[in-house]
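Sequence and fold
=================
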Amino acid sequence: MPGCEGLVALSDKEYEADMVVKTMFMTIKFKANGILKDSVEGEEMNVEMVGKPMKLAGLFKTKMNITLDEVGDTETKITYAMDLQMTGRLATLGDVLMKGTIKKSANEFAENVQTLFAG
């Protein structure tokens, strides 16, 4: 996961992460807690995450659905949908700074997954 500097498994479905998001103008450090809500092996998973920036007022909540579709014997198409909500000062900056950064991070995540499975 891009920006993840540390990850601790709290259980088989819950994780705590130290994350860094670099935008064009600033770097924001977060403490985030993620939960795997449900999954169907090889088909789909639903993840929820809540994070609080270390030096800004506010927080973010995200729900993400990831779907895996077999394209052929050796290829899988990964599709995701994300609902992101932000509050406080983070929300004020979010519209301007975070949208492009999130898209870039999502693309980097997809490339990392592709590299992991290709290797």
